[in-house]
Amino acid sequence: MLNVGLYYSSLSREITTMADEFTVTLKGQLVKGYHTQKWGTAATRSFTQTGAGVAGGVATIGYAAEEVLGIGDITTQGFLYLKNLDITNFVTYGPTISGVMVEFGKLKAGEEAWLRVMPSGSIRAQANPVTTGNVLLQMLLFED
To answer: What is the pTM of this model?
Structure first.
């Protein structure tokens, strides 16, 4: 669950940020055979956003080459949300180092990721290079 609370003043058009705009709950459970593993808690964790920027949308990620994810007018990157909207193919993602992507993560069809990223640098993604299909990737990048 992601809650972003921003107050927009109708008189001055200034954005006033409040404390604890992000509320995140992360928990999971694995049950396979005789193995059960739980992690996280039912409690939520809140984070304060210093800036007020958000960039994102849905990008078509190709399979032939890595693509840089657009960050819009974000000056200090904070949290990144990714969701693979494809029903078949996976997409890999990671930071750009020396002009190429270093694979850090993989999202199978329908999977999501929520992570804090370094304040600067670019993030790239690439659809499964074995297939010949593009992947739709939903991205939201929140300023720190």
So the answer is: 0.74
